[in-house]
Design a protein that fits this description.
The mean pLDDT is about 80. This protein is mostly helical. A hairpin with a 5-residue loop joins strand 1 (about 20-25) and strand 2. It is built from five helices and two strands. Helix 3 (about 70-90) crosses helix 5 (about 100-130). The chain has two domains: about 10-45, no CATH class; about 70-130.
Length: about 140
């Protein structure tokens, strides 16, 4: 489907009667036959291998990596400071001391890391199923 800009351009081309001319070797303007123009446009589209309608480019699939504890630990290192700051900013954080907040952050990470690994594994198995590879439960 053409975009709004493309539709406006097409409508504008239909609205105006263009007079196509070219200048010959002696400097005279010579009119171009409309049938000649259509044949030229058709030959250009045939030469490029495209029809008048463009096909959308196929979407590239995101490659899902197999689950690994190393990647999960890196993700945990990124989220640990966020969890600590969140605990400090919400109301319960004012009642907790710094060691209390650290302990609470460690407890959140204890829940977050296995959950993150399970989600990675689920995404990997779904990706493998889409590719037609049966998931091998003995490896993970």
């Amino acid at each position: 489907m053409p975009t709004r800009k493309q539709r406006r351009k097409q409508q504008k081309e239909r609205r105006h009667e263009y007079e196509f001319v070219y200048v010959d070797d002696e400097g005279r303007e010579v009119e171009v036959d409309p049938a000649e123009l259509k044949a030229e446009r058709a030959s250009k589209s045939a030469a490029t291998g495209r029809s008048s309608r463009r096909q959308p480019a196929p979407r590239a699939r995101k490659i899902v990596q197999p689950p690994s504890f190393q990647r999960v630990l890196k993700r945990g290192l990124l989220f640990a400071p966020v969890m600590y700051v969140t605990l400090s900013l919400i109301g319960a954080g004012k009642k907790l001391t710094i060691p209390g907040r650290l302990l609470q952050t460690a407890m959140l990470l204890a829940f977050f890391l296995p959950f993150s690994y399970v989600m990675d594994r689920l995404a990997w198995r779904t990706y493998q199923r889409r590719l037609g590879n049966p998931p091998d439960d003995s490896k993970s």
